[in-house]
Every structure is written in C-alpha cells, then in structure tokens.
Amino acid sequence: MREDRYGSPWLTPREAAVYSRCSEERIRSAIACGEIAAHPRLGSTRGMLVSARDLDRLIESEVLKMPVAAALMQKGA
Asked: Which of 13, 16, 42, 73 is packed most tightly, with the most Cβ within 10 A?
C-alpha cells in the first residue's frame, strides 16, 4: 500500500484514481455503489477521502474477476 504525498493512507478521489490508474469517475462510481467507503474530510463540509487499503482490496478483487489472460497482460507478462 502506498501513501499519499503527505504520508497519509487517505486519498482524495483524484489521488485514488491516479493511485489505481483508473478514472476519477470510476472511483466515484465505486463509492456510490458501496464498493469502497468514503469518509468526510476532517474540518471540511466538502470533499471525501478513501482508504488506500480499501482501494487495494478493490483493485485485487477486480483483478481476480478478470480472465487469466487479461490479468497476465495487465501485469506485463
């Protein structure tokens, strides 16, 4: 698990998209569907954060759903 530039395991949706190499829309969709939990930023009425650990679990589950050949291609094998 990587941490963001501030040394925190909490990521904004934009940072989560970069981290997972997908679109910010995909991250927001995962939040809306309940695939990953979003938590409000402390001291802010706007914005949310996701746990890099939760994001890692989502990435792993997506890879497990892929056909073997597609998973190997993503790994660069």
From this structure: 16
